[in-house]
Amino acid sequence: MKARKVRQSTLDMISRHVDVDDIYITRTVEQSDQSLDDIIRKRYPLVLSGGGDGTAMRVIEQMRRKVERLNAEGGDYQLPKYGLLKLGTGNGWAGLLQTPRKVGPIWALRRLHDHELRFTPFNMMESEGRLFHFGGMGVDALILNDYIDVKNKFTTGFMWKVVNSLLGYLIALIARSIPKTIFKKFAVYVKVTNLSDEPVYRINHTNGVEELPIKKGEVIYDGRSLIAGFATTENYGFNLKAYPFACVKPGYCQLRLADVTVPHVLRLAKTVWIGTWEEPGVHDFLVKHIRIESKVDVPFQLGGDPEGYRRAVEVKVSDYTVEMLDFRR
User: Number of helices and strands (H, E) in the chain?
Assistant: First the structure.
């Protein structure tokens, strides 16, 4: 797979280290269909996906559907393990797993023995028939939409390098998102309902994990929030630890709500970035299955891909897990 704007020089670098028969280059999800069929039938034990979080999610989602379909027709195929080539922009998952830049993972695979490779399982989440590892309604999706718009304005040259970096993200944030959220007083009122028979937990750095007496069908939160975000991985992108409790309890995802203003978040940018943000307006929960509702259309994103606007979404932790190549030591 290929990220939105991966340079030919990077692809040439990959081809110098990998047999050409083992490289599949596609520019759209639709184009990847035949390639993934071929990958499954060849029974590769490990697949490296080149691109950002959105690309990785699309590959994993398509692979699962294809394996299920082929096995329903009498096949006996297995899903491979996955690794990432850090070719996208935010690379939240790759940052968490400390994935080396560009072709670094390929060099590592050539150098290490099988028993030296580390794979970490991650729960996926499901919403609207999609698999993903983080998503949200609110200001996070608004910022993402603005960032994608800025990136799409430049395809080559110096500005291409700028917008495909943390600096580009900050430019979109300052030039577009902040004016929208401050001057238009961006605010979302959401109601979050528990749809699971399993316990709901509150979590924070001070008190740890606390089980709540919230039963199926009861409301977890009802009020104002800049974001209604959910994740099974800590990093959002650029090593921003937006969901520091996402991996605390297997089988659960972190739900984060924040009844604060954008200027307030900016003043606390460092603590937000490193995952230590804690105050009365921040509400973190561990949940398995929820419904989020709003009375107005709210920006929505899944896995780092903008998905338009929604008034209601249902999110649950999937039974499906993926094993990711992990370079943390």
Answer: 11, 14
